[in-house]
Amino acid sequence: MSVFAEQSVDVEHYLSQRAIAAQPSEVRKILRASPRPDTISFANGAPYLGALPFDRLADDAHRILEHHGSKAFQYGPSEGIPELRRHICELMALEGITADPAAVVVTTGSQQAIDVAARVLVNPGDVIFAEGPSYAGGMAAFAGYEAEIVHVPVDADGMVVAELERLLAQVRAVGKTPKGVYTIPNFQNPGGVNLSAERRTRIGELCRAEGMLVFEDNPYGLLGFDGTTTRAIQPDFADITIYFGSFSKMIAPGPRVGWMLPPSWLHEHMVNTSETGALNPAVFNQQLISAYLDDPSWKTKLDEYRGIYCRKFEALVQTLEEVMPEGTTWNQPTGGFYLWVTVPDGIDTEKLAYEGIDRGVVFVPGTAFYTNGAGHNEMRLSFCLPTEDDIQRGARIIGELFREAA
Ligand SMILES: Cc1ncc(COP(=O)(O)O)c(C=O)c1O
Predict the structure, then answer these.
(1) How many other C-beta atoms lie within 10 A of the C-beta of residue 139?
(2) CA of 164 to the centre of ligand 1 (A)
(3) Atom 13, ligand 1: which residue's CA is nearest?
(4) DSSP state string for 155-205
(5) Which position among 98, 174, 288, 379 has the lowest Cβ density within 10 Å, counted as fewest Cβ atoms?
(6) Residue 245 structural domain
C-alpha cells in the first residue's frame, strides 16, 4: 500500500488546473491491464530489438567509457553533442532536409521535443489541428499546455486538406486562435497512411498564409517496407515547420534520444525551454547512438528491419483475412508499425479490448487516438513487436473474439 493511501488529501486543492485536466493515456491503461506474461501484444508501438547488434553496441559502450568516460558521465551541451547532430543532419538529408548541425536540438526522445515545442508555442485555448486519429502522446503534449485538439479527417492520402480548410474557418468564426497543424506524414501512428506530396505542399501553403505552424512528427520515415523515403514538409516550409525526429523506432527507444529542427527564429527559445526540463539530453546515450551511426552497417541493419516488419505485417494481414468477421476493413500501410482496423458498426473495440486481455491478446481501441470520443468501431494493431508465430496466434484469438461479437 502506498504511504499516502491513508492520508485524506484534498488533491485538487494542490494540483494545477493543467494536472487536473490531464488524462492518463489509454494505451498505458490497456498495457497495465494486461498482466499475463504470455499476453500477445498488438498494443505497443515498441520496435522489435531481436536483430540489434548488441555485441557491437557493448563494444562501443566499453570503448566510450574507457576512452571518454569523464565526458560521457558529465553534463553536456543543452542542444546535444556535435557529433550526433552531424549524424542527424545526414539522416534528415535522406528526406530532402538541408540543415546545419547547429540548428538541431537533441532531446530526451522526440516526446520531449513535442512537449518543449508545445510549451514554447501554445497558449491556453489555442487550436492544434491533428489527423483523426492521431498519436495519443503527441496530442497529450499539446493538451498538457491547454491546447484544444481539432481532428481533421484522413483518407488514403492522409489529412484531407479541404476538411482542414473548413474546420479552420469554423475555428476562426468562433474567435479561437489556430496555432498549427500536427501531422505524422509517414506511416502515420495509428492510421498507417502517408500524406501525399501534393497535400504536404497545400498544408504548408495554408499554414503560411494563415499564420500557423507545421508540427511535422516523423519517427517512422525511414521504415518504409521497400526503403522508399518521401520529401519532408520542412525543406519547403523551413520558416514555419518544427520537425521532430527520433532514434526510438529505427534503432531503439531505451537510450531516449530524439531531436527537433525548429525554424532559426525559434531555436533559442526551444533550447532554453528544453534546458529547463532536462538540462541536457544524456551524453552517454548520444555517444552510443553516434558510435552506432559511425559504422555504415547501420544501413544494412535498417534494411534487415524493414524486411522483418514487412513480413510481420504480411503475417498479420493474411491471418486477419481468414478470421475477421465480414465487413471488417483495414488500411494498407507500406511501412511503419501499425494496421488500422475498422470493424462493423455496433461492435465496440473498447469493450472487446478488455475481453481480449482475458483471452491473452492486447490491442488498443480506436477511442485512444481521438480526443472527441470517436473510434468505437476502430482499433490499432501494432505488428512491430510480436514474433510472426505470435502474430498469427494472436490474430486468430482476435478473430474469434470479433466473430462472436458480430
Ligand atoms: C508519432 C510518434 N511521435 C513521437 C513518438 C515518441 O517517440 P520517442 O519519444 O520514443 O522518440 C512516438 C512514439 O510512439 C510516435 O509514435
Answers:
(1) 24
(2) 24
(3) 45
(4) ETTEE-HHHHHHHHHHHHHTT--EEEEEE--SS-TTT-----HHHHHHHHH
(5) 174
(6) 70-294
> Distance, CA 352 to ligand 1 centroid (Å)?
26
CATH code: domain of residue 180: 3.40.640.10
Q: Give the pTM.
A: 0.96
Does residue 6 register a pLDDT over 80?
Answer: no
Q: Which amino acid is at 132?
A: G
Q: Which residues pair with 154 in a beta bridge?
A: 159
Nearest to 104 by CA among 120, 83, 80: 80
pLDDT tens digits along 281-317: 999 999 999 999 999 999 999 999 999 999 999 999 9
Per-chain mean pLDDT for the chain:
95
Q: Report the interhelical angle of 388-405 vs 297-323 (nearest 10°).
A: 30
Q: How many CA atoms lie within 13 Å of 374's alpha carbon, on the beta-carbon side? A: 13
The answer to the question of residue 63 being in a domain is no
Residue 8 has a CB neighbour count (10 Å cut-off) of 5
* Same domain as 250, residue 110: yes
Between the CA of 111 and the centroid of ligand 1 the distance, in Å, is 6
Domain boundary among 294, 327, 357: 294
